[in-house]
Amino acid sequence: MGDSRLWQLLLPITVIGLLASLASAADVEDFDWESITPSSTLSYKPCYQDLQCARLIVPLDWQNSSNPHNVVLAIAKLPAKVSDDNHMFGGTIFTNPGGPGGSGIDHLLRRGHDLQVIAGTQYEILSWDPRGVGHTSPGADCYRGDIMARDVADIQAEAIGPLDASHDAFRRRWAGAKAAGQMCQATMEEGSILPYLSTASVVRDMVAMLDQVHAPKFHAGMDVGAGTEKVLEPMDVPRIMYWGFSYGSILGNTFASMYPGRVGRMILDGIADADDYVKGTWLTNLQDADAVLEDFYRGCFSQDRSCSLKKSSDTKWEDIKNRVDGFITQTTQNPITIIDNHDITVITGADIQLAFIPTLYAPLSLSRHLSDLLSDALGGNYTLLRADMAQTSPKLHDYCASEPKPFTGRDAAHAIKCADGEDETNHGMAYFQSYLDELKSQSQALGQHWTKIRLACSGWSTRPKWRFTGPFTTPEPDASLVEGKPAAPILFLSSRLDPVTPVRNAVNMAQGHPSAAVVIREGAGHCAASAPSTCIFRIIREYLDKAVMPENGTSCLPDCDPWTPCPLSIKLLDNSLLSRRHFFL
C-alpha cells in the first residue's frame, strides 16, 4: 500500500518531532491507556514520568446527534510549575506536531519540556492523538491488524522503485495506490472512523477539549458526549492558546476560521497554504526545496574543516554538488552491491537521494551527518549510508507478538488529507504523470516523493461527513473579548528557506487575518523551530504573556548554524538524528 521509506522520511514535517533522538516510540516509557476509564469530562491520571493523561469521549459524528458511536481521545498534559489556582498560572497551551496523523502524545513526550521552557513554566502544555491516530480509538487501520499484509505491501512498493524510475514503475505505483484506497473503502463498516477524520472534525474535538479544560472554572460539568454546553457570556467563553507546526498550521488556521471567537493566542510555525491544501493539489510546498539543498552545499563549501565533503581542490560550491550528482548518476546506472553474511544490500542513486531528505528538514542537526555519509560513500565506505537505509527500509515484524501494536498513523494520514482535499478518484494515470512532471519542475530533490502524497488519494473514494474549505479568515481581533472575534492577532513563524512550507505561504495566509504578523527566522530548515533563536523565543513569550505583536516581517537570526556548535543553554530543539517515521507536514 505504501512507501515505507518515504513514510519514515517525509512525514516528519514538524521540526519539534523531526529533531527527536533516534529512539523510537517504543523506547519511550510505555503506559497502559486502557487503565484510564473514558469519560465525557476530563479526569486525569498520572502517566509516563511527569505527565497527566485522560481519555475524553466525544461524538463520532459532530453533525448528527443521533449517531450512537463515539471517539475516545487520548490526551496528555505537562503540568505547569505552579498550580492552576495560583495567580501566576498562565493557562493551557494546546500543541499539534503536524502530519496529518502525527501523534500528539509522542510529541509531548519528546518535546513538551522544550516547549514549556520556551513559553514559560507557568504554562501547562497539552497535546493529544487526533481521531484515528495512536492511542485514540477507534484507530484508522485499513489492514484490520494484518501486519504481515502491510509489510508485504511496503516491500513490494520498495521493489518497484521510485515513481520516476521508469514508465512501468509509475504505472505499477499508480495502480497500487488506487487499489490501496479501494481496499480501505472495503474495510468500512457501521461506526467506521474513516468518514469522520477530516480536519473540521478534529477542530470540533479541540473545542470540546477546550471547554473541558476550562469547565472547572465555571462548575459547568459540560458533557461533550451529550452535546450540551453551558451558555456563557462572551467574557467567559473559553479561548484557546495554540501552538501548531506545519500541518498543525492548517489545523490552527481552520480552528481560527471556524471559531474565531474561541481564539486567545495562536502561534503557527511552518505555514502550509490552506487553500491549496483543501484543493488537494499540494502545489505550493516545494518552491524553496532545491534552494535548501543549495544552501547545504554553499555552507559546506564555506567551511575549512567542519564539512568532510569538501575537498581542498574545490573552488566553488558547485564542485561539491557536481561530485555528488555524478555519484548518484553512477549508482543509478551501476548499483552497488554489498554482501554481509546472508544480508544483501543494493545501493542505487535513489537511495542516496533519499538520504538527503532529513537534512532538508533539519539542517542544523543533520548537515554534518549528511556530509560524513556522502564523503564516506564517495570513498567506498557505505557504513553510514547503510545504517540510514536500515532505519527507513520496510521490515518484517514479529507477527506472533503477545501484544501486537496496531499501525494507525499512515492510514489516518491518508484519510485526513484525502478527506480534506477534493475527490481525486476521477483522475487517470496520464493526469498523475503530468502532475509528477510539474512537481519535479518545482523541485528535483523532492518532486518525485511529494507526488506520492496526492497519488495516495487516487483510489480513496471515502468522502468526509464534514469538510471545511474556507474562507481562511478571521475578523479584526479585540482584546476586550468580543463575541466572535479573536482576543489577539495570529503570530505566523517561518524559516527563510523551508523545503516544504515556503515563507511565501506565511505571507499569503497572514493576509486573511487582520493585524497578524509574520516573523522569519533566517536560515534553512522546516519551521522556524528547526534552529534555536533567542530572538524568536523572546517574541513568543511576549506574545503569550501580553499579546505583544512584533512588526510584520520581523527577521530573527538563529543562535547557531549547521556548521558551528550550539551553546548548550539554547540547544532546546537539537538532537542527534532523525527518528520521525510519520507524516508529510
UniProtKB/TrEMBL annotation:
Pfam families xref list: Abhydrolase_1 (PF00561), Abhydrolase_4 (PF08386)
Q: What is the superkingdom listed in this entry's lineage?
A: Eukaryota
Q: Does the keyword Membrane apply?
A: no
Q: Where is the Peptidase S33 tripeptidyl aminopeptidase-like C-terminal domain?
A: 445-556
Q: Does the keyword Lyase apply?
A: no
- Gene Ontology molecular function: hydrolase activity
The residue ranges of the AB hydrolase-1 domain are 96-288
Q: Which UniProt keywords apply?
A: Hydrolase, Signal
Q: Specify the signal sequence span.
A: 1-25
Under InterPro entries, the record lists: AB_hydrolase_1, AB_hydrolase_fold, Pept_S33_TAP-like_C, Serine_prot/Carboxylest_S33
Q: Which family does it belong to?
A: Belongs to the peptidase S33 family.
Protein name as catalogued: Peptidase S33 tripeptidyl aminopeptidase-like C-terminal domain-containing protein
**Lineage per the UniProt record:** Eukaryota, Fungi, Dikarya, Ascomycota, Pezizomycotina
